[in-house]
Amino acid sequence: MSVATQKKSTAPTSTGAGMRFVGGMSNYIDERTSISGAVKFLGRKIFPDHWSFMLGEIALYSFVVILLSGTFLTFFYDPSMVEVHYDGSYVPLKGIHMSAAYSSTLNLTFDIRGGLLMRQVHHWAALLFVASIGLHMLRVFFTGAFRKPREINWVIGFVLFILAMAEGFTGYSLPDDLLSGNGLRIIDGMIKAIPGIGTWISYLLFGGEFPGNDVIPRLYVLHIMLLPALVIALIAIHMVLLIINKHTQFAGPGRTNDNVVGSPILPVFAAKAGGFFFLVFGIIMLIASLFTINPIWNYGPYDPSPVSAGTQPDWYIGFADGMLRLMPPGWEFVVDGYTWSLNLLVPIVVLMLFIVIVMIYPFLEAWVTGDKREHHIAERPRNQPTRTAIGAAGVTFYAVLWAGAASDLIATHFRTTIEGVIHALQVLLIVGPIAAFWMAKKIALALQRKDRELVLHGYESSRIVRLPGGEYREIHTPLDEFEQWKLVSFDEYAPAQLRPNARGKITIGARMRASVSRFYFEDRIAPVVTKELESRTH
Amino acid sequence: MSRTLNRKGRRHPLSSLVLILVGLFVSGGAYATVTGTASAADAPVSPTQIDDGKKLFASNCASCHGLSAEGSAAGPSLIGAGALSVEFQVGSGRMPMSGSGPQAEKKPVQFTQPEIDAMAAWVASLAPGPGVPEASSLAGGDPSNGAELFRVNCAMCHNVAGAGGALTEGKWAPNLHNIDPVHVYAAMVTGPQNMPVFSDMNITPDEKRDIIAYLKFLDESPSVGGMDLGALGPVSEGLFVWIFALGGLVAITIWLSAKSN
């Protein structure tokens, strides 16, 4: 508190009326809230400067845009499946039977000033929200920023990613148009495929046989109440943990595991971040005003009978749709009158496994390395070849599934057969990740070798001199200290030794860990050590 | 050398006049063929027209369809196909095919309208088949009913917005934007390529007119929400958001965190 009072007494030294007002106001607020301590603490929080550290901010700011535009939409949207006759200004739907939800979305689009723009802002911002979360997660993964003490925050961020997809999917379904209804039908099919309880869950969710009269209001409650509340709460925890854990930074002179080098929140970072918020907002508005998204008036009201060609989910559900499309035909069997739909169960299991592995990866890696230290220095992807390779394999797996969701468009646009596209993607789904793993690892190791070479011998200056003895030699320019620091300071891990425990036994767990550890760290390039640096002048 | 150059470069003083005349004939001829479509239906079929059609057929179509349109291993019999089929296949540039493939592709129309009419008249003279309707009979119609019929009957292959879609084994349902109403009607009645026939029992002539009215509405109304990214739905939207929105913002982050020189 005393610190706070000190700050106040020094503030109103300038005599301008504005400054006096600001000083008075701050004093008034602080005397009642003691907020200056918190402002001072947060204002001094340091953020390191690197472009890849701003990806999470894009997600945060697009979420703010989603909240603002979504609030506008709730004023006019009617979450009801009551049947009405459309009587708005869009001619090709005049007089058609539809749900009040679809009709109110059409009115929002065509008869409410600014409604279409707000719908497009909301939808584009939602696509950007999930995309920026994905990119942010990739950055965190490939730089090892999920290691102790940030494992919990990785899991929270991961849950936010899942919640963002759930928000997206529920929102996509709300207009009750043909496209989203088809998507809901697929979800219904997947639920019904779950053995034993599937049909029960489906009837519970839809309030009877699909589509029923209840699902839209239920999705609406999830979309505007439960899910946003969870997202906001988890974002808050995510930010608090970010402050507690401090931000990671890349290695550099003066940057250690115990400090953070960068700009303080007040005033530099806050100004930058504020400006960046308006840039994100501006780009979303620009795109929403120039490019149409989800033209629901083209799709028509939902009716279970028609299914349009080119029906796809929004991009973030694409990987799941792709998995369904890539399943070989005929994977189902009947036991005692009950159909086991492996063509739906296998995708559910594979996707769940994939998602769970992403969630628990920090713990898996911590188990393999046995590393209990705190890490605040972000790693360069090349310095952890196996992790980078695993990431590349995961990205490839996801990308192939993603392409699978667009298999029909790939076929028509590249003038090939849809069967050919599907079969090629089926092969790629297995071969692609393996090839990506192998290539990424080789590339990472090669880059490490190049770094080592640079540190020890410097750049080739292309200046060739003749020595007195007649020998020709190219002069190498040594790296400056900044460059060198980046290249030499990283942790080296070695395969774990297989040793008996305190009771003199080698457990199965220890054996497993030793073999996984060997898989991780067998191929490695040792970082340059001080002795080598000292003796590098030939 | 210079003499040959001169000779090549020299133009007859009347050459521009000839060029203008050729241009006028071409545009006048094109105009005549376009306006001729409407009158083609009611124009009486003369024996010489049928005869012309037979000759054109023999030299352009018979290698696959057979000299008397009886069909062969390479192409189906056209006996009973009717004038409407000929109008659709030849008038949209699909026939004659440029090569065998999963499906006949649209290309620039190879014949003039009178030639197409002549071939249609000859094919129609072989056996009764669907005839070409008057263009005026396809005008009007209720786009809202047409849209609903389109969603139920057509959208599963042609996409709700008429953007087209993939079929099996490399075949596809074409994009339906800016198609001549007669051809839309012909496609429904004759079921060309992989398309099923929608008979008058299935979709009445009035309903066909409604569907045409809906497609016409799509052609004439601009995309209200801005550029439509090919009207391909979420795939193009997802690609756009990753490449342009997120790509642009990443460029901005690099700009914001760049050190000043």
The major beta sheet of chain A can be summarized as: 2 strands, antiparallel
Q: What pattern of helices and strands is seen along the backbone of chain A?
A: HHHEHEEHHHHHHEEHHHEEHEHHHEEHHH
% residues in beta strands of chain B: under 5%
Proportion in helices of chain A:
55-70%
Reported CATH architecture of the largest domain in chain A: Up-down Bundle
Strands in their spatial order, largest beta sheet of chain B? 1-2
Q: Provide the low-confidence segments of chain A as ranges.
A: 1-12
Q: Helix content range of the residues of chain B, please? A: 40-55%
Structural class category of chain B: mainly alpha
What pattern of helices and strands is seen along the backbone of chain B?
HHHHHHHHEEHHH
Structural class of chain A: mainly alpha
User: Most extensive interface: pair and counts?
Assistant: A-B, 72 and 57 residues
Find the CATH topology of the largest domain in chain B.
Answer: Cytochrome Bc1 Complex, Chain D, domain 2
CA-CA gap between termini of chain B: 62 Å
Q: Which oligomeric state applies?
A: heterodimer
CATH class of the largest domain in chain B: Mainly Alpha
What is the alpha-carbon Rg of chain A in Å? 29 Å
**Biggest pleated-sheet summary of chain B:** 2 strands, antiparallel
